Amino acid sequence: MSTRNRLIVLAVVCAVAIGGAAGYLLHSRKSQDKAVRSAPTVAKVPVSQIAGGPRIVFRNTALGSGYGTIAMVSLANPSGPRAITGTSCDRVYSSKQRILCLSSSQGIVTTYKAQVLSDTFQTQQNLPLAGIPSRARLSTDGTLAATTSFTAGDSYAGTSFSTRTVISHLSGKQDDVGLESYRLVHDGASISPVDRNFWGVTFAADDDTFYATAAWSGHTWLVKGRISTRTMTTLHEDAECPSLSPDGTTIVYKKRARQPVGHWRLASYDIATGRETMLAETRTVDDQVDWMDSHNVLYGIPRSGSQAAVDDIYEVPTDGSGQPKLLIAQAWSPAVVH
Known about the structure:
The protein starts with a helix and ends with a strand. It has helices at 3-38, 47-50, and strands at residues 55-60, 69-74, 83-88, 91-94, 98-105, 111-118, 123-127, 132-138, 144-152, 162-169, 177-178, 183-186, 189-191, 197-203, 209-216, 219-226, 231-237, 240-244, 250-255, 265-270, 276-278, 290-291, 296-302, 311-317, 325-328, 331-337. The strands form six sheets. The protein has a six-stranded mixed beta sheet with strand order 13-12-17-16-15-14, with no helix packed on it. A four-stranded antiparallel beta sheet has the order 3-2-1-26. It has a four-stranded antiparallel beta sheet with strand order 4-5-6-7, with no helix packed on it. The chain has 338 residues and is mainly beta. The protein is globular and about 55 Å long. A hairpin with a 5-residue loop joins β18 (240-244) and β19 (250-255). The chain has two helices and 26 strands. It is 12% helix and 45% strand.
């Protein structure tokens, strides 16, 4: 084949490829537009009507102009009207006075941000975030922040991922510290597995103790850490994304429980006795729960099909009784502020 003919063939192939890509994007855009138009509307109220009082802060997943932004509902009426802000986050968490917002901005080079916001959504501080936003937590008094991001891979479902988890003192008096620099103690001995990963921090009330997930060699562990000594000690196997109860006695986490890869069940763990109880939610849950009160937790469940971009927040008791119930439709990443 002559050079001229090769160029003609190449031009035809490129034209077909470009046309196919354009057709796909057009179809995708039309499908998205249709989904937005057919999405049910949500009742809205001004932010000032809910901010400052007991509330649930979350990421709004109602399709439309406010998709992906921070929203909130009254704690007394979770299924009622929501206040939608103009601040976009991939993952959000809130204390009384501060909000932690992890976000990504796609472009030629995707960038990532972790911002500490005031209760009026003004940026107070920027924190390190190395990759795709995954988990976010603040201590109860809002003096500590923990962020987890994927630096390789984008899901806990597989085995080929790496995470970066950092604890930050929001006073600025101490450096941001990655958990990779902490001493890991397992069965009474310090270990340093080359494939270790850490994620999903939850803080105790003393602003020193925390719990998190440690993983190596295909196993996950609930670990108890201390900021003052920069140590973490394994407590219980098959536990991910822990969340400590308000009274500090119980942890709820997700566990594989011999399910297929990418599936998890929620379980509660009594710290004093080590007793584990499976919760009544039987669907897979890939989330770090938050505590509604001392007996119930909240978590997000994604929809499927044409509604795959929409999530809903459910509530379930932590003692294994009852059944999951829908608490906030079209919402994700809940944080309860009393």
